Amino acid sequence: MSAPLLAGKVVVISGVGPGLGRGLAIQCAKAGADVVLAARSESRLAGVAKEVEDLGRRAVTVPTDITDPAACERLADTVRDTFGRADGLVNNAFAPPPLTDLTTVDLDAVRAGFETNVLAALRLTRLFVPVLEEARGSVVMINSAVLRHSRRTFGAYKMAKAALLAMTQTLSTELGPRGVRVNTIAPGYIWADNLKWYFEHLAKKRGVPAQQVYDESAATTDLRRLPEPDEVADAVVFMLSPLARAVTGQCLDVNSGEWHH
């Protein structure tokens, strides 16, 4: 029997919550990794850590606001002190930018979105470069299908995610000679609690069943369904694993075929 894809590896995940963050932690653990979980909510971290430990893997929780440089340094120090290594970093933390037209959007709100969604990911990545270089490790940025369209009110969101993609590509060029790969994953809708609540909200406003809202959204995809967190997380596991050892600077869309790229 072959070893799990991430056997013996240590993966750091930011922005761990009940949706994709939890899925990332669980799928990395199932693939054999020990995980370091970072988020602002300590109670959320504890629940996900328990699930990881029930799978037989080690989970270390570090409450972290990634917009706080000192907190990020504590996270990096904890990883070094606890494991002495890091093989993967998943920048999953996200703050929704204002959803309004660029012609009227508050520029301070746009800046705040860039701070969390772009600059904080860069800060965290820079802190982990030394240990990732030692392990010949990998970074995965969580991006978005917003890259693929230009719908009104999504301008600030697309600006932030486009910057994250550009940053990924440049870091790949800078860090590739040091043995570190840098990629990004771009999901569309993810069928998790937040989206389920949103579809219920839309259904009530329209006076239709929530399943109808789901079916209408799923009909825009080739597979006629919306990806679930573990399916998106599995794409991240691939990018972190030796199977992707020659893949860097890339953006992998995970959207059931809603957008082709």
UniProtKB/TrEMBL annotation:
Entries under InterPro entries matching the protein: NAD(P)-bd_dom_sf, SDR_fam
UniProt-listed Gene3D superfamilies: NAD(P)-binding Rossmann-like Domain (3.40.50.720)
Short name of one Pfam family: adh_short_C2
Record-level Gene Ontology MF annotations: oxidoreductase activity
Oxidoreductase in keyword set: yes
Keywords: Oxidoreductase
Statement: the UniProt record of this protein carries the keyword Magnesium: no
Name of the protein: SDR family oxidoreductase
